[in-house]
Structure to design on (307 residues):
């Protein structure tokens, strides 16, 4: 294994607080190029087996995961992540690590799965390092979401929507009252205007990502919070008491087609909607525009259910 940059060993030594005890390479960096995850060789310099293949070294990430662990994160992950998925991840990890060991090696071998364990959750740092390195680690993905990095959150408002993604907060223009006015063609929305508005929203989102130096997200959830998110949850469920719902992209597109083909009066008269919800076509346009752009695994509407 080789170091990715000449100063990586010096920087990793600084992050660890001691020199690395074996060969490594940097496999994940932050936007500034600083090491976040290193991949260790199967053996240390003295030949000792190294069961932890991926090591979280980024200072901010290490601290955030430590806080999560201190708040009971390990036990919470064991409750919320399917145990069969965790066991399968350990098995995949072990096979992948063993494939890097020379066939003619003699002596002790690193054992176990992620972090050297075979089942359950041993260390959130090790799981998160595996996830950031590109492994299919369900616990690492769970950590990513707990830290707020696996979700794009939208607080829909007029005239601007607040976006929180990858630890960065910014706004994009979404004048929903103006959107609804533009969408009125007689008493029905103009399909061409719908297309224009969705394009404007996606352009505004991409522009904001460039300005804030955030890459277009992938493999995330889309969360729409606040009153408009709750209104969309009521629209989807047909229940006036509903304040939370999880849907996929196909369902979001169905809600879009439902309102886009309604006349202005019928859009506010669907089962579940409150008088205060008003016309949600503008909100649906925003949801569909960003859903098409980031292709989320799920779209969460409204406030989270109480625990």
């Amino acid at each position: 294994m080789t170091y990715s940059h000449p100063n990586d060993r010096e920087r990793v030594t600084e992050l660890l607080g001691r020199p690395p005890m074996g060969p490594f390479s940097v496999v994940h960096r932050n936007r500034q190029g600083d090491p976040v995850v290193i991949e260790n060789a199967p053996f240390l310099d003295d030949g000792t087996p190294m069961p932890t293949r991926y090591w979280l070294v980024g200072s901010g990430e290490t601290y955030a995961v430590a806080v999560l662990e201190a708040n009971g994160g390990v036990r919470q992950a064991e409750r919320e992540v399917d145990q069969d998925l965790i066991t399968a991840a350990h098995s995949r990890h072990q096979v992948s690590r063993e494939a890097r060991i020379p066939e003619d090696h003699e002596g002790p071998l690193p054992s176990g799965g992620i972090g050297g364990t075979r089942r359950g959750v041993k260390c959130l740092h090790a799981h998160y390092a595996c996830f950031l390195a590109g492994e299919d680690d369900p616990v690492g993905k769970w950590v990513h979401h707990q830290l707020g990095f696996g979700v794009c959150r939208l607080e829909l408002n007029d005239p601007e929507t607040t976006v929180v993604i990858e630890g960065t907060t910014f706004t994009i223009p979404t004048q929903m009252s103006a959107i609804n006015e533009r969408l009125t063609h007689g008493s029905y929305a103009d399909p061409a205007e719908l297309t224009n508005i969705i394009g404007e929203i996606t352009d505004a989102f991409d522009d904001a990502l460039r300005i804030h130096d955030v890459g277009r997200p992938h493999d995330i959830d889309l969360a729409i919070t606040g009153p408009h998110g709750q209104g969309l949850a009521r629209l989807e469920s047909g229940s006036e008491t509903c304040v939370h719902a999880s849907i996929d992209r196909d369902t979001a597109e169905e809600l879009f087609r439902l309102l886009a083909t309604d006349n202005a009066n019928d859009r506010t008269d669907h089962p579940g909607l409150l008088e205060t919800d008003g016309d949600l076509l503008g909100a649906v346009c925003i949801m569909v525009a960003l859903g098409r752009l980031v292709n989320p695994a799920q779209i969460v509407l409204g406030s989270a259910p109480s625990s």
